[in-house]
Structure formats: C-alpha cells, structure tokens
Amino acid sequence: MKKGFTLTEVLVYVAVLTIIFSAVVSLFLGISRSNTRAKVIRETLNNSRRAMEIMTYEIREAKSIYTPTSDFSSSTGQLSLETAKYLSEGENTSYIDFYLCEKRLCLKKEGQDPMALTSDKVEINHLQFSQIATTSTTPSIQISLGINFKAPSNKPEYQTSINTTSTASLRSY
Known about the structure:
three-stranded antiparallel sheet; five-stranded antiparallel sheet; 35% strand
C-alpha cells in the first residue's frame, strides 16, 4: 500500500491555506487603515481644539478689539487684540494678532516673532473672525476655522477635514 498525498489533496490544502492567508492579510490591512485613519482624525482634532482654546483665551483676556478701520462688522481672516501688559511701571498696552501664515494659523505678540499654532501636518482652509451683536456692550467674536490634514497620498484614510465654530466675548473689567 502506497502512502502519500494525491494531487487533489495537495490542491485542496493549498486552496485552504490561500483563503486563510488572504483573510489574515485583509484583516491586518484593515486594522492598519483604521489605525491610520484614527491618527489622522486625532491630529486634526487636536490642532483644531488647541487653536480654538488659545484664540478664545486671548479674546477673553483682551481689553479691546483693535481695528485700523472704524468698523469690524465685516468678516475677516485676521484678528488684532489690544491687551494689557502689566510691568513694574504699571499697565502698558500691547497687541496680539491671529492670522494665516502660509497654510498655518499664526499668533504674533507685539515685540515677538510669529508663532504657528497649528502643526505642519495640517493646513488651514478657512479662517474667519466676525464680530457679533450682543445685548451687552461687551464685544463678542465668532471664530470659524476649517482644517484639513495634509495627506501624503490620495488614500481615503488620509482625507480628513474639520470645521469648527466658537464664540468668545471680551471680559468687561
């Protein structure tokens, strides 16, 4: 009696192994894509949240909105705030600006170099500041911010866009 495998048994064995191997590879590719997608969303959300937190904090702490023209009622992509800087000699006025530099959100404090508030992994596609009417005399600013992840390729897991809107009012002293 001859012992061994027939050609049919070997082909069935190879087919079963191929199906199992394909399923395992597909599972790992899916997990990898999901992990990449989660990282991209987290990076974009963290940049958006950090930028909004810094801008709303500075607006709340500002003395006034600095406008070179007499009217800030129109929407603009730059915001200038007048702040109080406390020195040993007393209070001194300084200015803070929020604006786009390249495709990043920048903050410039008077006498300092501009500082990017967003990482180089994202780009700002929309930035708008609008003064909104309130029942009080304290000015309020609505911030509209749109951020895209800088996709290194056209793969769908890298395509993320976040649009956020927030409102902050100057504190009345």
